[in-house]
Design brief:
Elements lengths: L2 H7 L1 H25 L11 E4 L7 E3 L7 E3 L2 E11 L2 E10 L1 H10 L3 H6 L1 E4 L7 E2 L3 H8 L12 E2 L3
Antiparallel strand pairs: 1-2, 1-4, 3-4, 4-5, 4-8, 5-6, 6-7
């Protein structure tokens, strides 16, 4: 029995096969068209970073583990606040080399968050470990710079 005879004897099956082939072909065409489109980031930037000790800052994904290379400079996490019409970096943090590699390899852990970070205010020369709760609390107590009055509010990207 040839193909023509089989199609004449099984018209419903033939129509089903034809529709299936058409749907699969359309699916391949859609996938091919979409593969050539420009891809946009899956999530907006959600953290601020700085490369110049807090003088300026930029928004990027928090998937970046500070310090990281940003256009040939070391970027660290910047905590940005606004008071009145002035926006400023209140303090910065980064991971020590030991914990940086662990966070990159295995993700952030409570141990790395507690023992592996260092904190610093813009203009200060020394990074201090975040493991001392009193020291850490001093960084979280943000004051307005340059005599600006008001309560500083955290700024999110």
């Amino acid at each position: 029995m040839g193909a023509r005879e089989w199609l004449n004897e099984h018209p419903k099956t033939a129509v089903g096969l034809g529709i299936s082939v058409a749907v699969i072909a359309i699916g391949f065409v859609v996938v091919e068209i979409r593969s050539g489109r420009h891809r946009y980031p899956s999530a907006p930037p959600d953290s601020y970073f700085t490369v110049d000790d807090g003088k300026t800052f930029f928004a990027a994904s928090s998937d970046n583990v500070p310090p990281f290379d940003y256009h040939g400079q070391q970027a660290v996490h910047a905590y940005v606040y606004r008071c009145g019409n002035q926006t400023f970096v209140a303090y910065m943090d980064r991971f020590t080399p030991k914990y940086h590699d662990a966070v990159v390899a295995h993700g952030l852990t409570a141990e790395a968050e507690k023992w592996g970070r260092e904190l610093k205010r813009p203009g200060e020369s020394k990074w201090v470990p975040s493991s001392d709760l009193r020291v850490e609390a001093q960084f979280y107590d943000v004051h307005s710079p340059n005599g600006v009055t008001g309560v500083p509010e955290a700024v999110e990207p």
